[in-house]
Here is the input.
Amino acid sequence: MPFVAPLALAGLLFVPVVLAMYLLKLRRDQAVVPSTLLWQRLVADVEANAPWQRLRRSLLLLLQLLLVIVLALLAARPFTERPAGLAGDIVVVIDTSASMQATDVTPDRLGAAKAAVLEALKDLPSGGRVSVIAAGRTAKVVANGTDDLGLVKQAIASITATSDAGSIGDALRLASALAARSADAEILVATDAAVATLPTGTLEAPVRVLRVGRDGGNLAIVALAVRSASSGLSHSAFISVANLGLSMATRRVELYADGVLREARTLTLDPQRRTDVSIDDVDDPLHPASVVEVRLTASEPDPAATDGSAAAPDYLAVDDHAWAVVPPAALRRVLLVGAGDPYLETALTYLPDTELYGIKPADYGPATHPEKFDLIIFEGWLPAALPAQPILAIAPPATSPLGTVTGTLTNPGIGRLDQSDPLLRYVDLSTVHIGEAQKIDLPAWARNVIPGPGGAPLLYAGQIAGRPVAVLTFLPRKSDLPLQVAFPVLLANLAGELLGGSATPADAVAPGTPVTLAIPAGALGVRVERPDGSADELLAPVAGAASVTFARTDLLGIYRVSPIADPSASPSPSGSAGATASAAPTPTPAGAAGPSSSAPAPTFRPADPSAPTLFAVDLLDVDESNIAPGDPAKLTRLGKPAASANPSAGTGSGGTTGTNAAKEPAARDELWIPIVLIALLVLTAEWLVYERDTVSRLRRHLVARIRGGGPA
Amino acid sequence: MTLQPDPDLEPLAHAPAPEVPPRPGPSAGTGAYLPSDLDPTVFDEGFLRQLQRLGVLMKQPVRGGLKGGRRSVKRGQSVEFADYRDYALGDDLRQLDWNVFARLEKLFVKLFVEEEDVTITFLLDASPSMAFGRPEKLLFAKRAAAALGYIALAGEDRVVVTALTGRSARRQGGLRGSGRVFRLLGNLSSIRPAEGPTDLVASVRHAAAMLSGRGVIVLLSDLLDPGADRVIRELAATGSELIILHVLSPEELDPQLEGDLRLVDAETGEGVDVTVDLAAIDAYKARLAAWQEGFADLAAKRRASYVPVPSDLPLADLVFAELRRRRVVG
Here is the structure.
């Protein structure tokens, strides 16, 4: 019998040690008795003063010798060999996407996948190496090329299912790269094969698929949106529920607004169909809700229903919930102070949830009540005293607290852009030409969003004493920017940052997707509270940074973002000046800016900058909710053919020589389980023999109680 | 009333037993002095009254010394008719049975049973082994001797206490009359365990040599001596009625030993290596039972009374239950 650790057989040296223990005379405790008269004939011991005694037959000795032998065998790890069924280098890919949470198999698909992998790894040849990849939205290597199966089991056990759609393609490409390290490699994919989009190309090793799952019965919320109702006073919710199973289903859709049940409807869902539901007035106009939650629950059993639709299976629970953040109902007021640029005014009218007011520079003053606006845009002009509101300055004519004008730039080119800047999101400036721009030194408080020649900024943004400020150094009409799609998008991004409306994503975010969170004015960073109550604090990487990226969006639900206040921040000295103004701006018809004498609507309520903002993370992925197990052959075909990729572990066909056959890798089955059982049996017997007095007393006590019918 | 020890008097364990204390006896119903190591609570007034109703039973009359309350083999003056004999000159005419003379016209003299006292000798084994047990075997033996001695004194018998120590016996003077009960208790209290090994056979022989006539011998011992059989035989051969109170402690009856031990003999100091397990305990108990049965058989053959008693047996149970059941007292 071969052994993994034959040196451990040296433990048999303990056999003579045990024998010596029995040969050595016992050191006895003394006990004084009245007389040894009655004990004399009971003694069958050895001669006094002899250090050794004659070895007598003892069951305890035999059991202890047997135990030593069994333990030595156990330590030596005997094994048997059989032909290995796997290659020598295995890359295990375990799908952790949301569909692996389906419970059509016990305990769930991920659990079944782990068990299938562990079972398959029993065919690993001795010395084989294993890498394990968890295939979520991003592929993660949890074990890399180890031959320690204990570590591999730990790594596999540590894998948990995610709520995202997953990306098996990325994981397979990573597995291919790992497998390329060895000529004798194989990729083992444990998945439900419910893959909507297959990766392209060929992998560097054969692929074997361990498919889990047997049923595709699932009901899912695949869309949820909350918009302002047509009345403008409340909100409506749009819900789409998909029955991805093959049988008719009846379910109840419950809508909660801020945790209060507002609507419940029972839906009859046709198989393989989507059903759309629109629910109006999900909140009270006087008490607008902030969060809407939709749950898909089992409907009340209908005694008249005989089609079993209420019992239609729904094996995936993660897509039975969805959350949405109710968009703010209040309109933002934007004041444009300038000579009037039709391009600019037109683009500004497209901003959502905003009211645009226009005024000439000559009319600007305290009577304008700049404090009642959320954003003030100065086009080619700046007042002597800047208001406390967020400012977008366009081509400031002279030096001001917003920057020092040092001259003009003619036909400035656009420098290298940082596309990760939120102001440049979806903005393509590659074909933009600028005729003339103000040459302004970049202030210390600002970041250069669109650099020009020599680093001179064409657009910069930042905060002055906690007030968001952006400066566009050129008039739009002196460029071809207004003629391009980038112009309204850039304005929307600017308005979003300056108004604070883009602090959080407006629409639901897919699980696992990084989110850019704007840092409010005067804050050191943001604090994000996750749905499970845990919180992350994200501080600005550099002073004055406008946004941070939050990546821990793996949980479904509502995330609350609140600013981390900067204790050293102080209010802007210019803020009080605007607050004393008494003039009211004038509502401006869309597309036309001009002075007006009418008062603004009295319902205007400035947004609280310290109030938490919310965003939702939802699965809402019909492809991931479609949990019907796929065809494993589609994944298998991505790999190399087994014969060419793994000649040494092949099936013996082709040119396998006798030498190669002799070196064919073998899998080991260690015999520790029967040996441990034997050891336990021997240990138990040894204990029983050692404690036979106690056992006998217990037996007598029980017998006495049974015979006596009471306590002995 | 409970008899309370007098703090003014020194216990007799360290001084010679005093003469009759200048106090009324227990029957007087007032307080009385008792030696300190005999638990006074067991000798309260009620207990003593109960003891007074008992007497030491004898299987056959024996010749005594002084007039007493026990039937003697001799004819004498008592109210119990024994026999007739022909009248002879010189006989007391008051003893003639005139009714018989009227019927038979012959003179007969009525003979009555003589009542004499009997000497009851308590042989207390004071070997070191008797100092063991909880409660101590010697203390139990002294209490039992005190109870039986009081019964004997109340029955107008003569009581002798002899301690068996070493190879000899230490006899204390005979006591007679219930007024000597305190002296008896003092004598018992002065007995202390001997130091060193005791040869029970030799000491019993010594004690037997000091016996005066036949009477009753009460042996109180644990009999943990190889020659215990010979002790019984030789005491039975004295012609006295032999009562054996075999006192063993609970620890000897049910040893609470376990493991690999070296048992050291308290008298000889010799050690015995033994592995005490349940089987060994069972074997010990079987051997103990056979040992006691051997004594019982031997005593039956010698017309002796053998009473095995554990040292934790309450004294009242011993006297009023165990000894009455075995017709030692009645």
Remarks:
- Confidence is low (pLDDT under 50) at residues 1-36 of chain B.
